[in-house]
Amino acid sequence: MNYRDLGNTGLKVSEIGMGCEGFGENNCENAQLLFDTAEESGINYFDLYTSDPAIRASVGKALKGRRDKFIIQAHICSIWKNGQYKRTRDIEEVKAGFQELLALLQTDHIEVGMIHYVDSMKDWENIANGPVLQYVRDLKKAGVIRHIGMSSHNPRVALEAVRSGAIEVLMFSVNPCYDLQPASEDVEELWQEKNYEAPLVNMDPERQELYEVCQRMGVGITVMKAFGGGDLLDGALSPAGKALTVNQCLHYALTRPGVSTVLAGAHSVEQLKTSLAYEDAPDEEKDYALAFAAFPKISWKGHCMYCSHCAPCPKKIDVADVTKFLNLAKAQKEVPETVREHYEVLAHHAGECIQCGSCETRCPFGVPIMENMKAAKEIFGK
Questions:
Q1: What is the rounded CA–CA span in Å between residue 315 and residue 311?
Q2: Helix, strand, or coil here: 262?
Q3: Are residues 179 and 289 in the same domain?
Q4: Is 133 a domain residue?
Q5: How many beta carbons lie within 10 A of that of residue 21, not counting itself?
Q6: Among 78, 149, 260, 301, who pairs with 116 as Cys (CB 3.0-4.6 Å)?
Q7: Are 225 and 178 in contact (CB under 8 A)?
Q8: 3-class secondary structure, 107
């Protein structure tokens, strides 16, 4: 296993880390198996965004007797309320949720405390100027968390947070398709056709700037969604029109400036070992340049570009986000917890669709939006 500096934190982290999506499977028995494999292979870093008490407890059990062998990145502001996930900025809920996290993990500290899921500038400003950031700073001063992090999918918001000097670690979505998307809080500029007029290697400049600023300022990037929820590994689902391999996706992420570790999602020991094979793979198996050059001419007929030309919806449904989460669920052939949680926090859901069809008259790509809304309601339950 190769190890990298996590920015300027002083921590050395395995370049292959673990996402937490698979911890809760098989009645949470999977956590023990995955941590056993992680220890054997040299993985020392993992993310725990989930607020599910059963999963948190299973991780605490799996860490027993080897807590010092793992660096924990866990999320603040991700709580469990009324039997389901909630992202909160209510300071009393934040504090109670974090204390529960420590208790269930059976630890008195975590190395990286992530301010959870900050995708809008207004949200970041409220955090930075309100009690949440002060609470996190107090935790660091007390040694309960050793370093302050933040998770985001929006490069503009992430840049603001990094440049503020408030965070030391950034959890960010990195892959060769997401990197083409321009920053937007309301997704209106994502997947514009102009982004695909040039070769796919032409990255959105703000994302490139984000990675370079992190490198320059010593903010370590921990990568989520390196496989695009599985889409990039499937030629039928990949926005690039052709499948990439696990090694190519990992290598792409690990060659971005500022990146310290890729949090590889794994639903089984076998899947984790597939990612671990990257460490011994020859250079030709990691090389993604030829694969990028061989991408076919992409046709988006019937494929949602997440451009939001379908807006405005009379029921205020964010069709682009609903479709994105629907596609992620279809790619996994199940509903990953991370996708379900992000769907839950949308202001309006697919079940509110009145099937008026106005969105389809505006869609430049002929997407069957009404059918997608029905499918999303069936999959997500609302």
A1: 10
A2: strand
A3: yes
A4: yes
A5: 24
A6: 78
A7: yes
A8: coil
Residue 13 has pLDDT above 70, yes or no: yes
Q: Which two tokens stand for residue 215?
A: 């490198």
Q: Which amino acid is at 206?
A: E
Q: Identify which of 91, 43, 98, 90 has the alpha carbon closest to the alpha carbon of residue 71.
A: 43
Can you list the pairs that 325-330 forms with residues at least 24 positions away whose Cβ atoms lie under 8 Å? 325/376, 325/380, 326/350, 326/372, 326/375, 326/376, 326/379, 327/229, 327/231, 327/237, 328/229, 328/230, 328/231, 329/379, 329/380, 330/237
Quickly list DSSP for 294-331.
TPPPP--TTS-----TTPPPTT---HHHHHHHHHHHHH
Sole residue written with tokens 């899947």:
271
Please tell me the total number of residues recorded for the chain in this structure. 382
Structural domain of 217: 3-293
Question: Count of domains in the chain?
Answer: 2
Model confidence pLDDT, tens digit, residues 225-270: 899 878 788 877 777 777 889 999 999 899 888 999 999 989 999 9
Whether 301 is covered by a domain: the verdict is no
Q: How many CB atoms lie within 10 A of CB 278?
A: 22
Q: Determine how many CB atoms are found less than 10 A away from the CB of residue 280.
A: 7
202 in a structural domain? yes
Helix (H, G, I), strand (E, B) or coil at 146: strand
Residue among 59, 14, 46, 38 nearest 112 (CA) = 46
- From CA 266, how far away is CA 263, in angstroms rounded? 9
- The DSSP bridge pattern shows strands 169-173 and 220-224 to be parallel
Q: Tell me which residue of 172, 193, 341, 330 sits closest to 260, measured CA to CA.
A: 172
Q: Are 362 and 319 in contact (CB under 8 A)?
A: no
DSSP percent split of the chain into helix, strand, coil, nearest 5? 45, 15, 40
Q: 345-380 pLDDT, tens per residue?
A: 999 999 999 999 999 988 866 889 999 999 999 999
Could you tell me which of 329, 310, 328 has the C-alpha nearest to residue 320?
310
